[in-house]
What does this fold into?
Amino acid sequence: RLSGIPTNDLAAGRIPEEKAEKYRQAKAILMAISDYMLIDDSQLIGVFEIMSKIRQAKRNYDLQVAYVDYAGLIDDKGVEDAQRHKVVGKIVRLLHGLALKLQIVIVIGAQQNREGGGIKGVGESYEIAQHSQGFIYIENADPNQNPKELVQKKRIKLEKQRDGWRGVSID
It folds into this structure.
């Protein structure tokens, strides 16, 4: 949302005149970094397919950092267990092992829906925090802010860091 224009409007080509310059600036930023970024938004793929894509990107582009979002929604083909939190844990362990083997960083994202925030609020994805080197989360800095506001104040917190400092908060 660099441009501040809702995604539906962008997809439909509706760019308000007052936001056209902001859109051009956002586009320029994305074009400048596009040579350094590979985005794969495949849907409904399993962890082994994700791992294969990461290995291929490392081989072809010397990948240094991979971002895997929505870990709780990764298809669990090939990961056998009836309990979802254990499946998510296995997915995290597989990705962690791959990161160590390839000597890269893999950042895994998951949506948090529980009250309380932090490690305690990740629900079925709690094994992400358990098996990770670090655990960072984003929360609303102002609990009274309107969720429909375009710009919202957020707080980034580092709650776990296996090899060093933790408890850091940035507003």
Remarks:
- The radius of gyration is 18 Å.
- The mean pLDDT is 75.
- The beta strands are 65-68, 105-108, 134-140, 154-161, 168-170.
- Residues 49 and 77 are 10 Å apart (CA to CA).
